[in-house]
Model the fold of this input.
Amino acid sequence: MKPNSVNKPKDGSVIRVDELHKHFTMGDTTVRALDGVSFTIAKGCFVAIMGPSGSGKTTLLDILGCLSRPTTGEYWLAGDKVSNLSDRQLARVRNHEIGFVFQNFNLLARSSAQVNVELPLFYDGVARRDRTRRAREALTAVGLGDRFHHCPNELSGGQRQRVAIARALINSPSIIFADEPTGNLDSASGNSIMKLFKDLHEKGHTIVMVTHEREIAEHAERIMSFRDGRLVTDEWLHQNPSK
Ligand SMILES: Nc1ncnc2c1ncn2[C@@H]1O[C@H](COP(=O)(O)OP(=O)(O)O)[C@@H](O)[C@H]1O
Ligand SMILES: [Mg+2]
Done:
């Protein structure tokens, strides 16, 4: 049975958050990393999240990616109330619905591109031959068809991020979360990563990308800006506010 089907949002949004708070208490001070955030994101939308350092962007993305839970507030992902999901259901969502891309790539340093990309399949118990085939397809799709056996230190920054994107895509997730994916890249590599994201968006993936570069954010359809844990502006670029 699907959890909480009674409360499914009826507006077609794939992400819906209501009054999210995340507070970190250290000694006698409390940081309100998120201080009452509400919004929805439609399926297939490409959203950029902007804001100065410390404004709560990573905290938000971690909650949206089901890597952490809010202190208070609700989160519906693809219609399911995340707080109602069991650990097993959450693990499935993380493995199959969500792909994560990080600023520092988060690759295994001593393993080849292929082994890095295979990892989510390994945890899923996929047979070796299938893992190899799918990892090679994913690497080829991000333009690394000739780099299967290279380790991260034998690849450029842009190529490492492509490996990380191939890994994020290996289970065909519907949503991709990216935290400053171009933050460690030169602008040419950054632009080629944006081209990949645009292709994914055109294929129907929902993309939520944190960046503090306006130029990068403008590849998205919608820019949400945060300050002090609050959503302060929400603007649509290009047309299509109906999305
Ligand atoms: N695990 C944590 N423990 C304590 N404070 C944290 C933790 N994670 C984030 N914070 C604080 O929450 C605020 C928002 O952090 P973060 O979401 O990382 O901001 P951003 O990604 O926008 O730079 C910052 O003040 C940060 O110091
Ligand atoms: Mg951050």
